[in-house]
Specification:
Helix 3 packs across helix 4. This protein is 25% helix and 29% strand. The strands form six sheets. Strands 9-8-10-18-19 form a five-stranded antiparallel β-sheet. It has eight helices and 19 strands. The chain is of the alpha+beta class and 322 residues long. The protein has a single domain, classed as Creatinase/methionine aminopeptidase superfamily (Creatine Amidinohydrolase), CATH 3.90.230.10.
Length: 322
C-alpha cells in the first residue's frame, strides 16, 4: 500500500529531489535576501517531511518534525528558531489552523486530506506556504483544480494587477468544476470568508486581504510580499471555529516573552521548548482551528508566498513539488 501512496498523482505533491543551497543566515541581511533564504529553508523542510505523510502517522509527530526541521536548517537562530507560526496539520473537514499538541492522538487515515501549512522566517520575513496531501485517488480532481487555480494566479498577476483579479481567476477555475464524491456529483466551492494576506516584517497577516473569490476590492498589487491561498470545499456550507485555542500571539510588546516570540504566533509546543511555565493565557490573542460546517465535507488548500518588486515577481515558495 505504501508504494502506491508514493505515486505523486495520489499524493497530491511529489517528493523534491533538489538540494537547495542555504547560505549562512545573517541578521543584517536585507528584506529580499532574508525572504529568499526563508523560501529555501521552506523547500528543504518540505523535501524532508513528505516521506512521513502516510496513513497511521500521528499528526502531532508531523507537526513536531516540521518544528525540528526548521530549527535545524536555521541553526535555531532568530525569533523562535525561525518558526514563523506553529505548523498546522488539518485533516479532511478541518480547513486550517489546527496545531497538534503532545496529548493529541489523532492519526491520519487513507481517506483523509492532510493540509500542512508551514511558516519559515528569517529576520522576521516569513514565507507562508501550504499544500494538501491525499491518498485516495477519488480526490484527484479536488486537488488538481485547487492547485491549478493557484498556479494560474501566480502565473498571470504582477505588480499593479488588481487584487480582485485573483478572485476572478480562482472562482472561474474552481466553481466551473464538478467532482464525484461518495457516489454523487458536486460542484466545487471556494470557501468564502478565508483569505490570503500581505506579509510585513514580524507581522504575518496585514492588509490588504487577498480573497480568492470574486470581490469588489479596487486596490492593486504593490511592491511587497503576499500570501495567496485558495481554500476549496466539495460540500460547501461555510465554516465555524473549533473549541481548542492553542495558537497564541502576544498582546503587548512589553511582555517578557516578546524577546522570544516577537509578534509571531506560537503554541504550547514552543512554550515547552523554552521551558516556559506559568503561562498567562490572558496575555495573548488566541486562534482556533477552522472547521467546515458539514462534517463529511472534504477541503483542500494550496498556498504560495510571492514577492513583487517593480521589475520582477518571485514565487519564493515554489519548487518541483508544487
Amino acid at each position: 500500500m505504501y508504494i502506491i501512496i508514493m505515486n505523486d498523482i495520489i499524493r497530491g505533491i511529489s517528493p523534491v529531489h533538489t538540494n537547495y543551497t542555504i547560505s549562512s543566515l545573517n541578521e543584517n541581511d536585507n528584506m529580499v535576501d532574508s525572504i529568499i533564504k526563508a523560501g529555501t529553508i521552506h523547500k528543504q523542510v518540505r523535501k524532508n517531511i513528505v516521506n512521513m505523510l502516510y496513513p497511521g502517522v500521528k499528526i502531532y509527530n508531523i507537526s513536531k518534525k516540521v518544528n525540528d526541521l526548521i530549527r535545524y536548517y536555521t541553526k535555531d537562530t532568530g525569533v523562535n528558531g525561525g518558526i514563523g507560526f506553529p505548523p498546522t496539520v488539518s485533516l479532511t473537514n478541518v480547513i486550517a489552523h489546527n496545531s497538534p499538541q503532545k496529548d493529541d492522538n489523532i492519526v491520519v487515515n487513507y481517506n483523509d486530506n492532510i493540509k500542512l501549512d508551514i511558516g519559515v522566517h528569517v529576520n522576521g520575513w516569513c514565507v507562508d506556504s501550504a499544500f494538501t496531501c491525499y491518498f485516495n485517488p477519488d480526490y484527484y480532481d479536488l486537488h488538481h483544480t485547487t492547485k491549478y487555480a493557484l498556479e494560474q494566479v501566480v502565473k498571470n498577476i504582477g505588480i499593479d494587477s488588481p487584487i480582485s483579479e485573483i478572485g476572478d481567476i480562482v472562482e472561474e477555475i474552481v466553481e466551473s468544476k464538478e467532482v464525484i464524491y461518495n457516489g454523487d456529483i458536486y460542484p466545487l466551492k471556494i470557501i468564502r470568508g478565508l483569505c490570503g494576506h500581505r506579509i510585513e516584517q514580524y507581522n504575518l497577516h496585514t492588509l490588504p486581504n487577498i480573497h480568492c473569490y470574486k470581490n469588489s476590492n479596487t486596490e492593486r498589487i504593490k511592491e511587497g510580499l503576499y500570501a495567496i491561498e485558495p481554500f476549496v470545499s466539495i460540500l460547501g456550507g461555510g465554516f465555524h471555529e473549533g473549541d481548542v485555542r492553542n495558537n497564541y500571539r502576544l498582546k503587548s510588546k512589553d511582555d517578557p516573552l516578546f524577546k522570544i516570540f516577537n509578534n509571531m504566533i506560537f503554541s504550547d509546543y514552543h512554550l515547552e521548548h523554552y521551558k516556559i511555565q506559568n503561562f498567562n493565557i490572558s496575555s495573548v490573542h488566541t486562534y482556533p482551528p477552522l472547521i467546515a460546517n458539514k462534517e463529511k465535507d472534504m477541503t483542500c488548500q494550496y498556498e504560495h508566498t510571492v514577492l513583487f518588486t517593480n521589475d520582477k515577481k518571485v514565487v519564493v515558495s515554489q519548487a518541483e513539488d508544487y
